[in-house]
Amino acid sequence: MLLQGALPSGERLVIMDEIHKYKGWRNLVKGFYDTHKSSRQFLITGSARLDHYRRGGDSLQGRYHYHRIHPLSLHEISRQPSSSDLDHLLHFGGFPEPFLKGNTRHWKRWQREHQSRVIHEDLISLEHVKEVSQMDLLAQVLPERIGSPLSINNLRQDLSVAFETMERWITILENLYFCFRIQPHGLPKLRAATKERKLYMWDWSVCATPSARFENLVASNLLKYCHLIEDREGDRMDLRFVRDSQGRELDFVVVRNNKPEFSVECKMGERQLSRNISYFAQRSNIPIFYQVHMGEKDYEITEFKARVLPFATMSGILGV
User: Fold this and answer.
1) How big is the chain by its Cα radius of gyration, in Å?
2) Which residue, of 63, 165, 256, 306, is most buried by count of CB atoms within 10 Å of its CB?
3) Model confidence at 121: pLDDT above 80
């Protein structure tokens, strides 16, 4: 019916989900928009990067606004979240179905089905990949490497493929919203130790350890903040990390229009201010340092432009 130009009658808003899996979707949507733009609005949704999977056809430039939808965040669950809200979000992840069910058995089954959908349905329909079983294995081992610089060379040796092939596979999983990577950020007068990027998952509940799960949750919220500002305000936003040649590291640095906006360090407990924050505060142009934790303490150390605060408070500051 769509290919014949048929649209639901009397509907002001027309929603097309997963239409990017049709090869000529851009021409189809362009035709609908150009014909009905005075009387209808169109919402195009999908499980992959629609700006990447163009699949040929005319440009849609000037006809749409691009918005990225993220998993649920603590700020969306409650304006005054409790510790149990955070525990629930950490355990079941931010995808609505397992989060709302709140059942461990259902969550485990959903995880397996989600990976199967990404690899055996979305991947096959959108990419030309023959080694599906190896992609499935890659998806299983990636959560073990969360929070550390990801060595493509080590991964390609483990799966016995070429470096270029492994890099392409991970990029494909990024385009399918399975995982994401962040780049190191270079600071003036400080030499970066690595060019490798750090890896995180869109579903942080797959992380095996509580510390990795919490760090991934923070990374996801910061990426959500960056995408919100970028998609709504138009500023260029980047989520990065800092690591110098001596191994000192800041978990995250949010960069707006090539200038650091703030840094975030993750700690599970209510510890004292990280030495890394005090070190980089004296040697970098980062204006604000946050150290987030799962406790209740909230205080500032003006000497180092730092604030130690609960993750729930940080989520409210970000407003995502």
Assistant:
1) 21
2) 306
3) yes
Element (H, E) at 181: strand 179-184
What span, in angstroms and rounded, lies between the C-alpha atoms of 37 and 35? Answer: 6
Helix (H) / strand (E) element for 126: namely helix 123-126
pLDDT at 57: 54
Helix count and strand count (H, E) for the chain: 12, 10
CB atoms within 10 A of CB 292: 27
Task: Dump pLDDT digits (tens) for 234-286.
Answer: 999 999 999 988 889 999 999 999 999 999 999 988 879 999 999 999 989 99
* Token pair for 164: 């270029």
Contact in structure between 280 and 306 (CB atoms under 8 Å): no
Of residues 278, 276, 279, 197, the one with CA closest to residue 238: 197
Pairing outcome for strands 198-201 and 249-256: unpaired
Is a pLDDT exceeding 50 seen at residue 55?
no
Q: How far is CA 229 from the centre of its chain?
A: 14
Closest CA to 176 of 208, 202, 205: 202
State the Cα–Cα distance between residues 251 and 191, nearest whole angstrom. 16
> Which residue matches tokens 């990404």?
118
**How far is Cα of residue 174 from the mean position of the Cα atoms in its chain?**
9
Rounded CA-CA distance 25/194 in Å is 40
Give the amino acid at 122.
Answer: D
Residue labelled with tokens 């023959």: 130
**Alpha carbons 104 and 109: distance in angstroms, whole number:** 9
The SS3 assignment for 97 reads helix
